[in-house]
């Protein structure tokens, strides 16, 4: 039981780190790309975020 809890904690930490890296890449893309492309990417990013959080919530329940 304790091992399961520690595994979940490790996974959540890894996903947070990945999310941070993703955010950095995102800012770079936003900086480089044009306004229209940025708009499209923002929509895609929001979709990604909702999927990510739905996934984490489904793991917890």
UniProtKB/TrEMBL annotation:
Organism: Chironomus riparius
Listed transmembrane segments: 7-29
Keywords: Membrane, Transmembrane, Transmembrane helix
Keyword Membrane annotated: yes
Name under which the protein is recorded: Uncharacterized protein
């Amino acid at each position: 039981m304790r091992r399961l809890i520690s595994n979940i904690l490790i996974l959540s930490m890894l996903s947070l780190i990945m999310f941070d890296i993703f955010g950095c890449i995102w800012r770079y893309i936003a900086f480089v790309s044009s306004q229209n492309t940025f708009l499209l990417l923002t929509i895609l990013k929001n979709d990604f975020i909702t999927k990510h959080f739905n996934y984490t919530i489904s793991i917890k329940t």
